[in-house]
Protein 1
Amino acid sequence: MNRLIGTKKIFYRNVGRANGLFLSSFNRIVDDRRIVINTLESLLDNGRISTKKIKLALSEIEASRIKLNLKRIPKNKADIKQIRDDLALKFTEESQFALDQGIVSLAINFEEFIRRTLIKFYTDDPRRLSKDKELKLGEIIDKTSLIDIYEDLATKAAKDILYGSTIRWFEIINKSLKFSFEGNMRAQKATTELFLVRNCIVHNAKFTTRELLSFDPKYIGIGKVNPTIKDYIRFRSSITKIVEDIYDQFNLKYANKYLFVHSAMSDIKQLHQEQTGNLRDTIDLRIKRGGLNALVKKYFLIELNELRQLLQSEVFECKLLATKILCLQYKSTHDAETKKKIFIFCILNLDLFNDTELIQFMTRNITTGSKVTAHNFQLLGALSKQYQPLKAYFLLRLIQKSPTIASKRHLIWLISNVERHAMRSAKNSKDIRLLRDSKTKAMQVVSLLPS
């Protein structure tokens, strides 16, 4: 499995587009300069020139779709030489500007590749994040799934890293991701140089900075940085080598993490083939539960983030397998923190449990027990304001099964929220019936509680 294939494709697509735009602009400027200068040089070499010859030369230039924007028609050689020198300077400045923009574009696209790689790395396993990366409770409530929280934390971590220098990027990649660039030290050095040159262009009016001067002595004595087309090609080649190196090492070290998911999907597909004799790729019949229960034991140790991959599948049995594994993990552990983690995972990913059977299975097996922290209650409150009937149904069943999760007053408030939001937005009679029956049973249980 290739974990960074999408990130790599985005990089090559963006670099390819930027490279095409840069080369078309740069080559056009170079061609225009050659045509103009050669034409004017030929005119000057013809000995005595006349107004007719001058107009003819200018017409040849304009026939190549080159606009000179002359204020007046030149009358003698001195005028022609002045125009030649002015245009040569103009084309030089334009070609240099195109080169500068090409250099900046390379740096932007490489930085985006690193950012996406770091986010992928930390999102896959948030335990890799340092302890100072955290979100406020209000920010968590607004999230619709656990993966959104992971991505926010990973984005913050990546942003902090990218504030530093390229040298620091490679240090963190070496330390945290355990990558090595020993075989690409020249490419790594050129990539660092690329960003130092880019900083001069963007932040220092092209004047050389201390960092660039100390990094490479060849820039000493140069007032302003003016990269050449050779520099552009060298930088592009270097970042491409680093991207390929990161891609290969990431897959070598971390791609196997999701082989459980891939294997589980293959096992479910095989069960379908055994039950239906259907060898097509599409699966349109539900399999017997006996074979699925055997897979629950096989994949019991799968992690929560991998279970989310199963829940995202369009195949119902993948969702059911993930639900059953979650419930078994919840019932098997005696650690309160683990139970809380699974419970919050279920709430934040309720959109993926988009079937009544899955919700009912969860409510029979996953509860918070007699004690609920304020953190969980805040999430329950946010859940009660949702318009999705299945989310509201889960909450009502949870209240019915564990009425001690909050005070009587709070439970009544949660139930009334469900009535105001979910029941009014239910689109079919089945959802309305499920909500009404669950609400009645939940209120009956709550009414027996002491005030």
Protein 2
Amino acid sequence: MDDMASFALDAAQITTREAVLPDDDSKAALCVGALVSGCPNAFVDFHRLATAGDGFGDDAMTAETAFALRIDTSAPKYVQPEEMPTEYARFVRDVLVDAEVGDDPAGVSVQHAGNTLAKFFHEKGDHEKACYFINKDLNRAVAVGDRKKEVTQRRRLALEREAQGEFTASAAAFEIAAEICERHANDDIIGVAGDADTENDGDGENENTTSVPFSFARTAQTSNADVARVLYKAASSCVGRGDLAGSENNLEKCLLACGNAGPACDHVLEAATFHELGLARGKQRDWTRAIDLQTAYLRACEIVGDERGEGVARVARVSISHPPHSAD
């Protein structure tokens, strides 16, 4: 008997031996139940979600994985993924099993189940598990070369990372979405008539869904505006933990993203970035750059009619033009 046949026999014997009553809600029993139902994929997904501390699944992020995702697991606000509570384990298992049992060659039921569980875990505040299902959808889109679906899922992933407080990882996901859209902007011309795809950042059933036809060019601008917004948050987070160099770096990138956003640019955020980066450059005694940034801040405030901001900008320019004498 070869190894695979031996493994199958052992698994069958264990399944039979450990079969439990239908109302047994222990996670071990629910796992066995997925196998008994003939749903190996549901078993794998449920096992990853239901276990913790065993070195397997989303509860055990390696340093290499964290680096690739640009997630700082040492950040003060980072929360390690926790084992799924028993109270809703049966609901999760049943959603997975029901989707796999159905006769659905196109995989629509499985995708719908993933969207349902991503939303469920998002509402529970378990963003790592929500990302798990978003990533599964993303991987399917990449595998079949569906660029529109890929962009939508990358944006969903970015929003989930943002909700998690992982702003650098969020910005990276938005950046990839923007880059894909920029490469495919010319595709908007093809199929302008009758293109039924719509822009949304969710599963097609939430409040973010719109009836606007999908546009790579427009989504590129929106994604760049999102990059700027998240990087501004990242800069503030860096200040909070005393990483002034990191804050300045994020503000510089934020300005670039604002420029790439075009009509989607948030000019209030752009103005604030000019000001804060100007203050940072002043602290570094880069007077020329600091004055240029505060001048840009002044112009931006004049455009939006922010009289208070105009006053702040003028005071900042004066202080930079007449810096305090150095002690040395």
Protein 3
Amino acid sequence: MPPSNPAGVRGTFRTIYVTRRGVSPRVVRAYVIGVDGAVQHAASAASGWTLRGKLGLRDTWLSVRTMSIAPASADNARITCGERVVLSGRTYPTIGTDKRVKLFYLRDGVWKSLIVAKATTAWRTFTISDGGASTTGRYVTYSFRAAPPCTTTYYFAFGTAYSPRTTIKVRPAVSLAAEPPAATAGQPVVLGGAVLPLSKAGSQITLQELVVAGPTPTWLDLGEATIADDGSYAFEWPAVEGTHTFRASLPAGDQLLAATSTAVTVTVGPAP
């Protein structure tokens, strides 16, 4: 890995754009790009010899490839199981039309890969404002619609180049319904639903009731049920007169975030 601030670039090091090569083709001039928040900075033009010294290279004959991935881990991307997230990025310079980008993902402690077809090649003009210069080149975009069943880390790769890693955090999908939604006091009400992924089978899920007492409403645990092999679960609640609001709560675990169902309201009238 290169140093965090090669050639005096401001902000976090991002990439190097080579703007001139010799006959060799050794690097004659290049710009080092850094990012500070949303602001892009470029160091003044650096010679190949300067880059060699700053990066600890053996020679000035070098090639540079950049790869990105979005959303980044800093974006705190979270999805619900069953949803998809688009992982995208771009690489510069362009790659051949017969080449493909790989997407690596960490699952059960093992890195696995998928082949991702690249999109069309496009022109991009890089403006180096600090140095008063500009250069042009082609870049390639790529994307993949992922549906991770649990929290998963990804990165793109092409040859020996790779993007930063990003982690998509996943919460279980939890549904809840009441049958019947309106009851009389003493009547049994079944509160149940389903959980995805099915890997949560055998786990405990908690039924909670919203208690409004004092300035801060709180969720009170009423009991636990075991999630069945098909993802279903159920609670039987003896109806008490009044209006009650329930939800099902699942703690974090098995590479999944904590999750709750949407709230369900049950109206209970007096006993006949």
